[in-house]
Amino acid sequence: MDVGLFNAAISGNDSFFEEIGGVNLNLKQVTRRGNSVLHVAAKSGKVQIMKKVLDSQPSLLYMENCKGNTALHIAASLGHVDMTKRLISCAKDQEAAVKNLLLRKINLGKNTALHEAIRNDHYDIVELLIREDPELASFTNNALESPLFLAY
Q1: pTM of the entire structure?
Q2: According to the 3-state scheme, what is the secondary structure of the chain?
């Protein structure tokens, strides 16, 4: 991934996009671990970068890294509530079936974002995800653990 793009996502420097004018900016670049700029923004909780990226490249919302995590998995596991809300909101702007694709997306361990939020004690995100899709509570991972089991 381009160093300038990576640093902008980490620091939240959304003016980076205006500075380069979008010229030859490939937002589908990834790090060695397969993280897109959206994954990096989710890790750092930089909502303004997420907005810029998704305005230009909405398909990154569903992109998985080498562990099968989407930006939603990462934001939920790290407790970035605003980022999680915005990612869900971006998915909501699409039809219902497409929104559920993001919420129900599983990583290589078959964990949903809900599993990740529960495992990391981010109960405000747990509540948000269950409100959006109550059926998430019944998904089991590779260890046959449902989110409800993990919460117990």
Answers
A1: 0.90
A2: CCHHHHHHHHHCCCHHHHHHCCCCCCCCCCCCCCCCHHHHHHHHCCHHHHHHHHHHCHHHHHCCCCCCCCHHHHHHHHCCHHHHHHHHHHHHCCCHHHHHHHHCCCCCCCCCHHHHHHHCCCHHHHHHHHHHCHHHHHCCCCCCCCHHHHHC
